[in-house]
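Supplementary Text 2. Reproducibility record for the structural model of the 95-residue chain.

All settings were left at their defaults, and a single model was retained for analysis rather than an ensemble. We include the record here because the model underlies the residue-level annotations in Supplementary Table 4.
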Amino acid sequence: MNIGVEEDGKDSNFERPVLVIKVFNRQCFLGIPMTSTEKTGKYYHKINFLGKDSYLILSQIKLFSIKRVSRKIYKIDKKEFDFIMNKLKNIIGFK
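Retained model, structure tokens:
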């Protein structure tokens, strides 16, 4: 369960899909939470996830414990991943 404006997951386990951006080691990774609720604006990115529209919540990029991972569900293609990374870099201000 998360705090404040952080996105909670659904069901009793509070599960939520996350796009893994970077695995740092066997304990943690950097990820972007997803939602099925339609969101627009520069802090969101629409993605097709398992045949349905989903939205990456770019403003909530954070470090996750590997212990939070229950299973690998889906892998996006490199072109889509690169586009998301460029969008994220522009939001954060990295060149």
